[in-house]
Amino acid sequence: MRAGASWPVPGCHAASLTVLRRRGSSAHGEVLQAMTSFDSNVRPDWDEVLTAIVDYVARFEPRNELAWHTARHMLIDSLGCALEALDYPACTKLLGPLVPGATLANGARVPGTAFQLDPVKAAFDIGATIRWLDFNDTWLAAEWGHPSDNLGAILALADWRSRNGAALTMRDVLECAIKAHEIQGVIALRNSFNQVGMDHVALVKLASTAIACHLLGLDRERSLAALSQVFVDGQALRTYRHAPNTGSRKSWAAGDATSRAVRLALIAQSGEMGYPSALTAPAWGFYDVAFQGRELRFERDYASYVIENVLFKISYPAEFHAQSAIEAAMSLHAQLQAMGRSSDDIARIVIRTQAACMRIIDKQGPLDNPADRDHCIQYMVAVPLIFGRLTAADYEDAVAADPRIDALRARIRCVEEPQFTADYHDPDKRSIANGLSVTLSDGSVLDEVLVEYPIGHRRRRAEGIPLLEAKFRRNLARRFDETRQQQILAIALDQARLEALPVHEFMDLFAA
Question: Fewest beta carbons within 10 Å, which of 49, 154, 180, 421?
Answer without folding.
Answer: 421
